Amino acid sequence: MKDWIYEKPDNLVEWWFESEKKFKDNVLFWVHNGQGGLDPIKYGEIGQRINNARGGLAMLGVDVGDAVGIIAPNRPEWAVLAYATYGRNARYVPMYEKELTQTWKYIIKDSAVKFLMVSTPEIYEQVKSFIDEIETLENIYIIDAEGDNSMAALELAGKTNPADPVIPGFDDVAVLIYTSGTTAEPKGVLLTHGNLTYCSRAGYRLYPELVETQVGISMLPWAHSYALSAELNNYIQFGGSLGFMRDVTTLADDLKIVKPTYLISVPRVFNKIYDGIQLKMSDAGGMKKKLFDAACVAAKEKRELADQGRSSGLVNFKHKLLDKIVFSKVRAAMGGRVTGALTASAAMNKEIAEFFYDIGIPTYDCYGLTETAPAVTMNSPADWRIGSVGKVLKGQKVVINKSVAEEGADDGEIIVYGPNLMKGYHNKPDDTAVVIMPDGGFRTGDRGRFDDDGFLWITGRIKEQYKLSNGKYVFPAMIEEETKLMPLVANAMVYGDGKPYNVCLILPDFEVASRWAAKEGVSIDPDELLGSEKFKTMMSTEIKAHLRKNFGGYEIPEKFLFIREDFTVENKMLTQTMKLKRRNVIDNYADDIEKLYG
């Protein structure tokens, strides 16, 4: 038991009951109806389904401490089963739908899942043999199906045989979330009811604009702690509602249909939107481009005057006029109602963050890990600094351990203390002992520094940093993120461990590159484009020039390998949370990388 004092409600069962009582007639979920519209599902309706599913789980013998697994994307049934599971004081084990079958099997076996829910009959066919292969697994049910092992059957059984909720303690495990495993097998992170309720409450208090009329669009998987705490549990506490992104390819349409007022997202989404806007304006040219540029200048002038505590009637007039003519159309493309966004996974690029601030959609960076449930620091409307990840949340303490850094460095490893720290890694006491210090601090493995005003700045990842043969340290992720901001670049990976200089693998954005090729009289066929010395020289020159703005000469890659295939979950080069599996990429391209060193 931790020494932290958790506010009530300190468990997700009473958390739900409190919200259901207050917001019974509010809409919780807006669901695509297949006809271009949305159907509402109210808190009261979801509450009844939770009660029924809890009864169904009880009938199947799911009890205190048992594990309930789910393989499904975000949808109302995901939340229903989660809160039903909490009501049995069992632990919820969410898994990604787009995952390798052997990874599902490992997680289900390691976590001792007793009851498994899957989204579709197709997934059921992939996992049905697990019943005979995993000792603890007793039942597999399907959401999109009919019959005795359907979600509907589970809820019907529970409606006939209701079960009173079991109220968990704050230190009881609520979810078992498996990390992506960039270098080794996945580790199950044990997060308690106290961890999750603390995180959602502490973050929510920094955003007074989040009230029951807010509408979000669920685009990040609840199987990850960021979306679980910042979105699902968070929106429930203030009575808000959530629509759904059907797929990455439909996001543009889904934004227009759902019309969200606030976004829980990642910088990559805003980077793509920004790139798309810039490309569209460049292609349009003429008066459209001139108006767009003028609007950007006026917004920048207004922001810079505000930063100095000043104002100008002329600048304000120009900004108001051009905002209506230009920026209102950008906001309309995002549904027309978005007023801000919380972002995580990487710090927003300064230029892009300023752009969205200027058009009326400020983005607030935050920082955390699965093991911290996840929030550690957050920017907020009342206190934020572009480029930083914000200030430490009330109730936590963060220490910078400089002993792991090179002599003279102003940063070090970020150590976290607080009520959000996991209980440990499931079945992995040795791994737990590596990250949980004797005094209770959690070693994040991230490097950072505080500025004089208490804002945290991330400077790198200890495990990913390496040293060139000249003794200089390199943090590849930061170089990669900056490289990927270029419209011509779809993906990138930097390498140079123990080498005299850095090299970089580049996946071009072939749609953007084809525009350049057409103008230059070069074939737009991707394979022929990658063989064009003219194209490769242009790309190398532009990338180096772009990176010189923010990085030292030793950090900038000297040579490039242009590749045809993206890094994906399917080819085992990306985790489910879009982190590079560097070792896999290096192994896959080992021969080509070595050729870059001559």
List keywords for this structure.
598 residues; alpha/beta; GMP Synthetase, Chain A, domain 3; five-stranded mixed sheet; 21 helices; globular
Enumerate the strands of the largest sheet in spatial order, edge to edge or round the barrel: 11-12-13-14-15
Low-confidence stretches: none
Number of helices: 21
* End-to-end separation: 57 Å
Task: Kindly report the name of the CATH homologous superfamily of the domain at 466-596.
Answer: ANL, C-terminal domain
Major sheet summary line = 5 strands, mixed
Q: Which class of secondary structure composition applies to the elements?
A: alpha/beta
Total strands: the figure is 25
Q: Would you state the CATH class of the domain at 466-596? A: Alpha Beta
**Strand fraction:** 15-25%
Based on CA inertia axes, which overall geometry fits?
globular
Which architecture name of the domain at 466-596 does CATH use? 2-Layer Sandwich
CATH topology of the domain at 466-596: GMP Synthetase, Chain A, domain 3
Question: How do the helices and strands line up, and which of them pair or pack?
Answer:
Blueprint: H1 12-23, E1 27-32, E2 38-42, H2 43-59, E3 67-71, H3 76-86, E4 91-95, H4 101-110, E5 113-118, H5 121-127, H6 130-133, E6 139-142, H7 151-160, E7 173-178, E8 188-192, H8 193-204, E9 215-218, H9 225-238, E10 241-244, H10 251-258, E11 263-265, H11 267-284, H12 286-307, H13 313-333, E12 341-343, H14 350-358, E13 363-368, E14 375-378, E15 391-392, E16 397-401, E17 412-417, E18 424-425, H15 429-435, E19 442-450, E20 456-461, E21 466-467, E22 473-474, H16 476-484, E23 489-495, E24 503-508, H17 510-520, H18 526-530, H19 533-547, E25 559-562, H20 582-588, H21 590-596
Helix pairs in contact: 1-9, 2-3, 2-7, 8-9, 12-13
